[in-house]
Amino acid sequence: MPNQGRKIIIAASVLSALFATSLSAEEGPTPEQQAVTATENRQAVFKLLAVNIGPIVGMARGAPFDAAVAERNARRIAVLATMIPERFAAMDTRAFAVETEALPVIWENPDDFAAKAAALAEAALTFADTAAGGDQAATLGGLRNLGGSCGNCHDSYRVDDE
Ligand code: HEC
Q1: Does the beta carbon of 93 sit less than 6 angstroms from any atom of ligand 1?
Q2: pLDDT tens digits for 47-92?
Q3: Cβ 109 under 6 angstroms from ligand 1
Q4: What is the model's pLDDT at position 108?
Q5: Beta carbons of 155 and 105 less than 8 angstroms apart
Q6: Which residue has the CA at smallest separation from atom 22 of ligand 1?
Q7: CA dihedral angle for residue 42, residue 44, residue 45, residue 48, rounded to 10 degrees
């Protein structure tokens, strides 16, 4: 089976190339640098959540209602929500002096933390489905529920600075 043999050789050389790259890199990031990156990455997810809910909040405060934007942004929020537990599982930064508002209990209650992220995703999908119907009052009436699932997690897992 010459073909299979060739595949194995290619796979092996790809692996050794990857391995060589990581070995030849002078020094990989230190655990401290990894913690900073992990913190920045999870904060980026929250920044994008805020970017996407912003226009919806704006509509509730009197900006022109745009059902398509409301639906699109809510669907983005549902996808971003799935990254929240993933990013916190990626690295436990409790032992590092990172600039964070994440409370240490997140890593003691990963299931509850994930459940709160899932609740956000669910609320966002419900919101998006309502927005798809195009009814302004019904859509914006759902903002309390959507925003509530942000606050519900912040209450337990984010430094209270408000
Ligand atoms: C499952 C928990 C959870 C949910 C749900 C959640 N957040 Fe957060 N949020 C956090 C935690 C924890 C932090 C602190 C992260 C850090 O500093 O490392 C945070 C931080 C933030 C920040 C500050 C980010 C920065 O610049 O450092 C913003 C803005 C934010 N959240 C907005 C939102 C919005 C808007 C929603 C809802 C659409 C939301 N969050 C839903 C837990 C959550």
Answers
A1: no
A2: 999 999 999 999 999 999 999 999 999 999 999 999 999 999 999 9
A3: no
A4: 98
A5: no
A6: 46
A7: 170
pLDDT digits (tens, 9 = 90+) for 142-160: 999 999 999 999 999 999 8
With the most atoms of ligand 1 within 8 angstroms of its CB, the residue from 39, 46, 100, 144 to mutate is: 46
Listed as own residue / partner, the contacts of 41-45 with beta carbons closer than 8 Å and 24 or more positions apart are 41/87, 41/90, 42/84, 42/87, 42/88, 42/90, 42/102, 43/100, 45/80, 45/83, 45/84, 45/87
Question: Would you state the pLDDT for residue 27?
Answer: 82
> How many Å lie between the centroid of ligand 1 and the Cα of residue 7?
45
| Number of other CB atoms surrounding residue 142 within 10 Å | 22
Report the Cα–Cα distance between both ends of the chain, in Å, rounded.
67
Q: Whose CA is nearest to atom 37 of ligand 1?
A: 150
What is the distance in A from the centroid of ligand 1 to the CA of 25?
Answer: 34
* The pLDDT of residue 160: 87
Q: Is 57 within 8 Å of 69 (Cβ atoms)?
A: no
Q: Is 91 in the pocket of ligand 1 (CB under 6 A)?
A: no
**Residue 103 phi, psi (nearest 5):** -80, 145
